[in-house]
Amino acid sequence: MAVLTGSLPLIPATSAVRSGIGFQESAPSVVALGGGHGLSASLSALRLLTSELTAVVTVADDGGSSGRLRRELGVLPPGDLRMALAALCDDTDWGRTWRDVMQHRFASRDGVEGSLDNHALGNLLIVTLWELLGDPVAGLQWAGALLGARGRVLPMASVPLTIEGDVLTEVDGGLRLRRVSGQAQLAMAGSSGNVSKVRLLPEDAPACVDALNAIELADWVILGPGSWYTSVLPHLLLPELRDALCTTTARRCLTMNLTNDTKETLGMSAVDHLAVIRRYAPDFRIDAVIADPSVVADRGEFEAAVAEMGGRAFLGKVGSSSGGPVHDALRLATAYHDMFGEF
């Protein structure tokens, strides 16, 4: 097996986007946790404010390209890790080019599904580095160096995880509890019933040591946005990671989604989202919650629920002007900047 040796390669100098937000010379050390598009949104905003940035990413994905690589090679699912690296690429020719390279997906011709069909090149690159180095953390560090990423990316656990839950559905006029296993299936389950008793397997899976250390040393820990049951909650289901999040001296922020009615959370309110966090991690206290007013039906009720968790609600428009449920990087960065300043 080939082995990469020596120190990390030099990468092109990057420049932060200074769009009036104010890139801070004494910027806070931030750990952002989540997965998929939600984590990409928070990272795209946070990289405008600090270079002391660590992404801790879920590793329970079992669908698409990631799921195939996980099953065929026995590796951590690389997809959410790839998306986090792409989000940390700087807004330069170098960063934009490598972001597009990492996100590029192969498509077979003439409707014939080939072995590379729908694989993201970034997934293959990351797995290649893992096989050469034999170390997921080192492989992600090399990938980040190649991209000129502003920050680093870590898996939440050192082994692939499986997420499962019970879904209460109506069958033949009665209610029945059925078990749903796998992130891809559970992500769709809420549209047909109420998700409950979510858990990670193996239950005693080891958390990534580097992630635990980053959380311990951080100034801020930011959880969310993202799929509530399959991207946000898993960080509080892994025992070692939950303990680290509950005991860290860092301030804690929860970033809410831009819509409550997802396939996982149909019929849930913003307050219900907070209740899920409290139910699974009652000792997890927060300092701040960032939310767009469009998802808060009753401001007083929401602020009271946040206060019960020890925090303050920061309400402001953070969604894209396009009207879709997509966070705007500059607006979200401004919200984080103002929150940092308040503390």
TrEMBL record:
Keywords assigned by UniProt, alphabetized: Cytoplasm
Domain of life: Bacteria
Pfam families, per database record: CofD (PF01933)
UniProt entry tagged with the keyword Chloroplast: no
Subcellular locations according to the entry: Cytoplasm
Record keyword Nucleotidyltransferase present: no
Stored Gene3D superfamilies: CofD-like domains
NCBIfam families hit by this protein: CofD_related (TIGR01826)
Family label: Belongs to the gluconeogenesis factor family.
Known role: Required for morphogenesis under gluconeogenic growth conditions.
Protein name in UniProt: Putative gluconeogenesis factor
